[in-house]
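Ops channel
N.P.: pipeline sanity check, posting one input/output pair.
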């Protein structure tokens, strides 16, 4: 039974990880064009537009999306009809998001003047109001599909949406539409996901219309759970954006653009633990519904193993190749962001194990605790700001951001261990770090002997070989890992799995 659960989780993560790889490649190619077509100031304006859209989405979500995933998965585990909950959540989102879009459209001139000190960008904020509708609906549809365990479809829709979004945006940029073309591309991508998601939801009747009187008790349950989550999401948004928001107030838009590009490059790396965390959340919720708490404990231990073995080398590898990666990623104009990227990768390697929790604090209805942890993380890291920002500028802000990640991780571990016996796979963690450090040294020496951004593929190959050799010497991979890979890939991949086994075991 444990092996079946492990295979299920790995398959779910594989769908999302594959989607992440595809969307990452699409996004990287699109960003390479975007960063070269737009000026640094225009890239800074794009950061402000993204911030505005993200904040509007958080405020209109009311915390319902996370609650929707939890309760749908939990009710499925209990065998209870969840369509009352899904209908109430979708209806509420339509009303709230529609109202917010109208408000954003009317306030566009004020937003342009307040955030960008100029009224010339008002039309962009009006376009953002239309984006808000598709963005909000997309989040709701995505969380509903996650709750009903349609990860394969969710991953496919995200890939298609990203392709349409980026192709439209880049095409319009090449045609000379500038920032207007970029925002229109965002809208088209979101619209594609909403249409595809709505088709599968209607076909499978994941949302069914019910009388409002029967839906009201479920909405009350969702609201009671979600209001602390709403406040938490607002604080989490601040936790995610506080660094760029502060930079907007203190440094020119061009420097904000350099920091943002480095942050986006790091964000590509974080898609892997995010995929695992997204898969674990509905699984943990379902197991809680079945009162199978030991499976949750086993899930944390097992997932920590694979996130350590997979993510740690990626984090230290990108840290070692930060300069060639960001140069090829966005162009020589943004090469100065290499130190920012390297610092974020180092802290990210320490923070990655938080993905193995899969939102456990939400699963156990500890949303106020999530709020306090995020507040403490921001406050604890911002204490460093007066020292680091004046002396080191955007590089100092990267350290502040990294400190917030580590504080958040440590506090989450402390809180969860008071609730259940949380255990990481310590052997996998230290062996992955030892192998990744060895890989880092090898790649760094190669760059020291001869450096060229165009040799990035060679650095990656050499680093991968060095990491595989180190894993073999340390005995980090075992027969259980190979068996899990066999179950995941099936008989068609027997030859590949046999080669992996001979190399690593």
């Amino acid at each position: 039974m444990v092996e079946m659960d492990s295979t299920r989780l790995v398959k779910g993560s594989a769908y999302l990880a594959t989607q992440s790889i595809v969307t990452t490649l699409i996004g990287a190619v699109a960003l390479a064009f975007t960063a070269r077509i737009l000026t640094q100031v225009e890239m800074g304006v794009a950061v402000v537009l993204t911030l505005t859209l993200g904040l509007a989405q958080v405020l209109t979500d009311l915390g319902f999306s996370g609650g929707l995933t939890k309760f749908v998965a939990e009710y499925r585990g209990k065998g209870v009809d969840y369509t009352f909950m899904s209908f109430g959540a979708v209806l509420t989102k339509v009303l709230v998001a529609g109202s917010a879009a109208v408000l954003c459209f009317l306030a566009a001139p004020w937003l342009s003047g307040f955030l960008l000190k100029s009224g010339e960008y008002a039309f962009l904020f009006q376009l953002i109001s239309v984006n808000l509708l598709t963005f909000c609906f997309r989040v709701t549809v995505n969380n509903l599909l996650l709750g009903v365990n349609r990860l394969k479809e969710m991953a496919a829709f995200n890939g298609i949406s990203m392709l349409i979004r980026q192709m439209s945006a880049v095409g319009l940029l090449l045609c000379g539409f500038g920032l207007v073309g970029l925002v229109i591309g965002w809208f088209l991508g979101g619209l594609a996901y909403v249409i595809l998601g709505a088709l599968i939801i209607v076909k499978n009747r994941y949302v069914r219309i019910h009388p409002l009187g029967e839906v009201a008790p479920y909405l009350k349950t969702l609201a009671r759970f979600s209001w602390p989550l709403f406040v938490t999401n607002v604080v989490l948004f601040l936790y995610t954006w506080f660094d760029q928001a502060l930079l907007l107030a203190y440094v020119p838009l061009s420097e904000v653009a350099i920091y943002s590009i480095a942050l986006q490059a790091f964000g590509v790396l974080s898609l892997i633990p995010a995929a695992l965390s997204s898969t674990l959340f509905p699984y943990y919720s379902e197991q809680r519904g079945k009162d199978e708490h030991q499976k949750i404990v086993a899930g944390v231990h097992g997932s920590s193993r694979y996130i350590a073995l997979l993510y740690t080398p990626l984090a230290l590898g990108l840290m070692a190749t930060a300069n060639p990666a960001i140069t090829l990623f966005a162009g020589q104009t943004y090469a100065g962001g290499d130190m920012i990227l390297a610092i974020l990768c180092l802290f990210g390697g320490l923070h990655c194990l938080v993905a193995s929790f899969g939102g456990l604090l939400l699963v156990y209805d500890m949303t106020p605790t999530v709020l306090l942890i995020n507040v403490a993380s921001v406050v604890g890291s911002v204490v460093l700001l007066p020292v680091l920002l004046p002396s080191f500028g955007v590089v100092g802000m990267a350290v502040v951001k990294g400190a917030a990640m580590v504080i958040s991780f440590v506090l989450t571990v402390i809180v969860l261990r008071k609730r259940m016996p949380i255990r990481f796979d310590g052997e996998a963690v230290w062996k992955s770090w030892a192998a990744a450090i060895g890989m880092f040294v090898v790649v760094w020496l190669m760059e020291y002997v001869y450096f060229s951004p165009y040799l990035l593929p060679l650095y990656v190959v050499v680093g991968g070989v060095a990491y595989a050799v180190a894993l073999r010497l340390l005995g980090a991979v075992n027969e259980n890992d190979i068996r899990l890979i066999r179950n995941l890939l099936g008989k068609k991949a027997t030859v590949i799995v046999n080669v992996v086994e001979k190399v690593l075991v």
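N.P.: looks fine end to end. The chain has one domain: 2-474.
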